[in-house]
Amino acid sequence: MFSDASVIMSFSTRLLAWYDRSARILPWRIAPGSGETPDPYRVWLAEVMLQQTTVAAVAGYFARFTARWPTVADLAAADDADVMAAWAGLGYYARARNLLACARAVVAEHGGRFPDSEAGLRALPGVGDYTAAAVAAIAFGRAAVVVDANIQRVIARHRLIETPLPMAKREIRAALAPLVPGDRPGDFAQAMMDLGATVCTPRSPACAICPVTADCRARGRPDIERLPVKPPKKAKPHRHGLAYWIERDGAIWLTRRPDKGMLGGMRALPGGDWSDDPPAESGVVRVDHGFTHFDLTLTLVHREVPPESPGAAAEGLWWPIAELDAAGLPTLYRKLTDKMLERDA
């Protein structure tokens, strides 16, 4: 915890001075000192996309989404399948479903304007504590305490918080709260994110150029990279599944996965449930894919006609193989179709 008011003020002053010189140029960000007003829709969209996803991966998706759906009203009116297809490859597909639900709630319940408080934002579908705080601070200038993985790392090191995550989150938040300035809280949050992303990095932090290194308690420690302390990783279970390649007249049969569950609402190859046991059929190709909580081996099997088993054919359509890029298949199924097409080339 910080106890000296002058130290608290000095931290934010040093950090914001550094940010004014060194802020990353990002497509969703208003540059410090520009005088422009952030668009809450763009701030919210970026924050949702950036959850557990890198800036590099998000940039192209953000540009395509905002070009196709430039306002929250445009997104709210979009067809579900179009949004899910546009999201394909970005992962964590529940975010896309929540994105639509939130946009529609903003339009239907708030006249197309995002609430300007943390509490109001948190009441929207799919908006949790982090996103509510980030949008409140960046878009509306609220003095919210924004804590993402980068900020966790900065504070854990600066205050030498050695309590393991996730128990340390409360301690980190308590240490950060008094540092948030009443003016420029949005810039402060983004400066903390940039500091963690570019200077106080997980490996080989650049302490020599850090604007708050003078009073960093972890500075010079040989074990600085272990902060924040993380619990031991658990071994991920391995699952297996079948997918079916059903081809006719240059097209393949695609289905739509159930709205709830893994890859919910996405177009996919038909197939059975995923289980702990390897399939009896050897198939023609297979791919390995990692999800957050388990790894999967998916085996592709030829079928002549859509299978009759419940859930295997489901609702579907014939999709031209030459136009698979436009199908919006999630990464797992795109890896499988690519491997199949490479085999047949």
UniProtKB/TrEMBL annotation:
Enzyme Commission number(s) of this protein: 3.2.2.31
One Pfam family matching this protein: HHH
Keyword 4Fe-4S: yes
UniProt keyword Iron-sulfur present: yes
InterPro entries, A to Z: DNA_glycosylase, Endonuclease-III-like_CS2, Endonuclease3_FeS-loop_motif, Endouclease-III_FeS-bd_BS, HhH-GPD_domain, HhH_base_excis_C, HhH_motif, MIG/MutY
GO biological process annotation, one example: mismatch repair
Gene3D superfamilies, alphabetized: Helix-hairpin-Helix base-excision DNA repair enzymes (C-terminal), Hypothetical protein, domain 2, Nucleoside Triphosphate Pyrophosphohydrolase
Catalytic activity: Hydrolyzes free adenine bases from 7,8-dihydro-8-oxoguanine:adenine mismatched double-stranded DNA, leaving an apurinic site
Keywords attached to this entry: 4Fe-4S, DNA damage, DNA repair, Glycosidase, Hydrolase, Iron, Iron-sulfur, Metal-binding
Function per UniProt: Adenine glycosylase active on G-A mispairs. MutY also corrects error-prone DNA synthesis past GO lesions which are due to the oxidatively damaged form of guanine: 7,8-dihydro-8-oxoguanine (8-oxo-dGTP).
Family, per entry: Belongs to the Nth/MutY family.
The name this protein goes by in its record: Adenine DNA glycosylase
Naturally occurring in which organism (per UniProt): uncultured Sphingopyxis sp
